[in-house]
Amino acid sequence: MKSTRATAWRKKTVTLDFLTHKRVINKEHQPQYFVRNNHPPIIAEGEWNYVQQELKRRNRKYRDPDDKYHMRYSGKTPFSNKLFCGECGRTVIRRRLASHGKNREKNYFTAWQCRVACLKDPNFKDCKSKYVWEEELEKAFMQLLYDLKENKAWVIEEGKEAISNCSLSEAEVARINELSSQIEKINVRISEMVARESSSNDAIYDATLRHLIYEQEILQMEYERLDENKQDSAYLQKHLNELLEYLDEINEPTDDFRVDIFANAVERGLVYDQRRVEFEFKCGIAFSVWANRQKKKSTK
To answer: Whose CA is closest to 77, among 256, 267, 262?
Structure first.
């Protein structure tokens, strides 16, 4: 992966008293400016961009439907942090339940249910969604993977459509290249001005530098907005390629549950009424299955 040169802020701290040489945080004492290509990066730009997209994805994922607080919960099992209630939006938790056989003997099983429906959330009520068997979730997911393998051309088509929805148009590609060039020119002008920084309070110098910094910030905001869409499409393409590779590894719908595929390919699962579960993949496509005792075909 080709590396690029990193960026850095300048004038984070300033010296106010040249007798003591004590530096303080620059709280609008002097203009701060942003310099690109300042020094060799620690990691490659592509890797950095991917990590930033992943952090944004996780931040969006772990917030409640009202976006009022950040949800925290464990990741002890493959479905932890992945399942949400499709009715109220809250997290789905793991439960150990029991059923009674003909001889009144207890048969224990593991299930997943909305934390509101099982009265584990004191702040929310009135969700009546039912639990789903963990075993059926695993079987339904593996059946879905097998169905996707049998219809790989359709998966590719759906994935490409999701990627195209956030890809840059030709005009936007031209614009982001133009912005990059403009920002680079402004960076050069700022660096030149800083190199010959006036030791006296020069009003014209300060006004010119502040104007360049303001122009840099405006262009940078537009650039980052377009670049985010560019990174989104690259993120989806990467995970589409990974999903297609995983599908090649599936032999039968009765294969053992693949923890690695679920963890790496699935963004989240939404559990709805009648035990319908919608799996949203990281490549931008989603499919529904029924995790109940009566087998039904998966649908888009």
So the answer is: 262
Q: For position 106, what pLDDT does the model report?
A: 82
- Contact call for residues 64 and 56 (beta carbons, < 8 A): no
Check residue 125 and give its pLDDT.
82
**Nearest by Cα to 246 from 160, 149, 169:** 149
Q: How far apart are CA 88 and CA 65, in angstroms?
A: 8
Q: What is the pLDDT of residue 1?
A: 31
Alpha helices in 151-285 (DSSP H): 152-166, 170-195, 203-247, 259-265
Using left for φ > 0, alpha for ψ between -120 and 50, and beta otherwise, residue 247 falls in alpha
Tokens of 53: 């997209």
Most confident of 23-37, 96-110, 197-211: 96-110
Question: Tens of pLDDT along 49-95?
Answer: 777 777 776 666 555 555 554 555 556 788 988 899 998 888 899 99
Angstrom distance (rounded) from CA 5 to CA 36: 7
Could you tell me the CA-to-CA distances from 288 to 63, 74, 100, 106 in Å, in that order? 23, 25, 30, 32
**Which residues have CB under 8 Å from 27's CB, separation 6+?**
none
Query: Using an 8 Å Cβ cutoff, are 223 and 180 in contact?
Result: yes
Give the residue among 278, 253, 248 at the shortest CA–CA distance from 266.
278
d(CA 186, CA 182): 6
**Are the C-beta atoms of 48 and 41 separated by less than 8 Å?**
yes
Rounded to two decimals, the pTM is: 0.73
